[in-house]
Amino acid sequence: MVQNCLKAQQALLSNLWQLCSNHDILMSVGGLGSRVALDRQFDGRLKWRPIVLPDNYIKHASPKEQLALAGVTGHRIAAATSSLLGRTR
């Protein structure tokens, strides 16, 4: 089981590095961003923004409500992407 997880992780990271080499912008939502930061030093060409959950307790609610309380919303992701592109919303 652990070996399968490690193989899946390596495949995911391999695909991620391929995306990074072929694109100018990387938006990561969730814990993947910290993994990217630890594993890779970008050459300065890639613009990268992680959107992560805060490190504090979020009260019980629906997943949509919890993400809104954490500030992880479609509007926030769109605003961060727009800022990377040099656009205002």
UniProtKB/TrEMBL annotation:
Keywords carried by this UniProt record: Thiamine pyrophosphate, Transferase
Reported cofactor(s): Mg(2+)
InterPro entries, per database record: Dxylulose-5-P_synthase
Domain of life of the source: Eukaryota
Quaternary structure (record): Homodimer.
PANTHER family associated with the record: 1-D-DEOXYXYLULOSE 5-PHOSPHATE SYNTHASE-RELATED (PTHR43322), 1-DEOXY-D-XYLULOSE-5-PHOSPHATE SYNTHASE (PTHR43322:SF3)
Name by which UniProt lists this protein: Uncharacterized protein
